[in-house]
Design a protein that fits this description.
This protein is α+β, with helices and mostly antiparallel strands. The chain has 12 helices and 18 strands. Among the domains are: about 150 residues, Heat Shock Protein 90 (2-Layer Sandwich); about 120 residues, Ribosomal Protein S5, domain 2 (2-Layer Sandwich), CATH 3.30.230.10.
Length: about 400
């Protein structure tokens, strides 16, 4: 057993050490990088977000958006810790309307990778390129590029090999990355998403796909058949989305998705409210399926609970739980109880085959997530050892 060393004098930690410590909170795995970069793209008002992975993100993570881009001075500030355009005063934390606000993501990612940012505004003649290696600024230059931002993260954890040892296999890390993109694709109707792995497109959702079409592209039409629309305009929560009939269940809660003001979140009060609405309708040990899009005043919720911004707290958890329960229960009461129970497909799984999906002809050309068989992304995701890939290749939107 290791012994405690002697306690030395108190010192201020060097900036590089501080950045690596902060990176440990923000950058837990490749999917954490995907999450932060996709959220930045959404805050930039992008209508198209592309994610390119090599070796499940261990070798390369590249996120490209067509958002408004940044000026050079803003781009340089963005890589500084606690620099953000999204809040100004402490009071702003009570009214957060953006995905990011801490100003920690980019410097944390850059501290543990070979990082490159290329960004351009519509008013600029050229793009700004910034290269950072292990938290050290290497180069700032002008280059060509479209309006928007491209962030390339190569060799994640190259300077912290201990962290790399704790990563799981290719299949597991890839599934976490896919899950991040799928959740945002469900929440951000009006934004197109594409994710590829080792140059193979796994999911491509066009901008004009509605929620039902997005669900079908991810899990297939058979999964969609037992989902019903739900809407509840009552205070304090406005609720919309899709819920499963009692015929569509899961052995786990993996198909319960909650989005607060378009942000994927976890909250036990919402989960309990949903489960309670189905009480007496499901077999013991089964759980309902739901994609609930909730809206509430930012002053009634607190997203500043954890650096990942995944956990959500309500000012009154009981009111939130009861609102979800009553809205869902009323919707279930309006449908006829099914005669038989059919379990939901396991997914999104990297191995599970999914039902055939026939894509409308007007969208077929823009849907790279489907092959000739029409299967959804859950059926076509890759596993196994990633093939070598040259760095620096830019994903093109289709």
């Amino acid at each position: 057993m290791p012994t405690r060393g002697g306690i030395g004098p108190v010192r201020i930690l060097p900036e590089g050490v501080v950045n690596k410590i902060a990176a440990g909170e923000v950058v837990e795995r490749p999917a954490s990088v995907v999450k932060e970069l996709v959220e930045n793209a959404l805050d930039a008002r992008a209508t198209r977000v592309g994610v390119r992975l090599v070796a499940a993100g261990r070798r390369t993570i590249e996120v490209i958006d067509n958002g408004h881009g940044m000026a050079e001075h803003d781009a340089l500030l963005a890589i500084e810790r606690h620099a953000t355009s999204k809040i100004r005063r402490a009071e702003d934390l009570d009214n957060i309307v953006t995905m990011g606000f801490r100003g920690e993501a980019l410097p944390s990612i850059a501290a543990v990778s070979r990082f490159e940012l290329v960004t351009r505004r519509a008013v600029d003649q050229s793009a700004t390129r910034i290269r950072i290696e292990g938290g050290v600024l290497r180069d700032v230059s002008q280059t060509g590029g479209p309006v928007g931002t491209r962030v390339s993260v190569n060799r994640l954890y190259f300077n912290t090999p201990v962290r790399a040892k704790f990563l799981k296999g290719i299949t597991t890390e890839l599934s976490h990355c896919i899950d991040i993109v799928q959740r945002h694709a469900l929440a951000e109707v009006g934004v197109g998403f594409q994710i590829s792995h080792n140059d193979k497109v796994l999911l491509d959702i066009p901008e004009n796909a509605d929620l039902r079409e997005r669900v079908a592209l991810i899990w297939g039409l058979n999964f969609l058949k037992d989902l019903i629309d739900i809407e509840g305009p009552g205070a304090p929560l406005k609720l919309g989305g899709l819920i499963g009939t009692p015929a569509l269940t899961r052995s786990q809660r993996s198909h319960q998705f909650f989005f607060m003001n378009r942000r994927p979140v976890f909250n036990r009060a919402l989960q309990y409210g949903l489960e309670d609405a189905y009480r007496g309708l499901l077999t013991i040990g089964r759980h309902p399926v739901a994609m609930l899009l909730l809206e509430a005043s930012p002053r009634l919720v607190d997203i500043n609970v954890h650096p990942t911004k995944r956990e959500l707290k309500f000012r009154d958890e009981r009111v939130a739980r009861d609102a979800v329960r009553e809205i869902v229960r009323a919707r279930l009461a309006a449908i006829e109880a099914p005669r038989d129970v059919r379990f939901a497909p396991r997914g999104p799984s990297l191995q599970s085959p999914q039902p055939t999906l026939q894509v409308p002809a007007r969208r077929r050309e823009s849907t790279g997530a489907l092959d000739r068989s029409g299967q959804g992304v859950a059926a076509k995701s890759e596993s196994g050892t990633a093939a070598p890939h040259e760095e620096g290749v830019q994903t093109e939107f289709v």
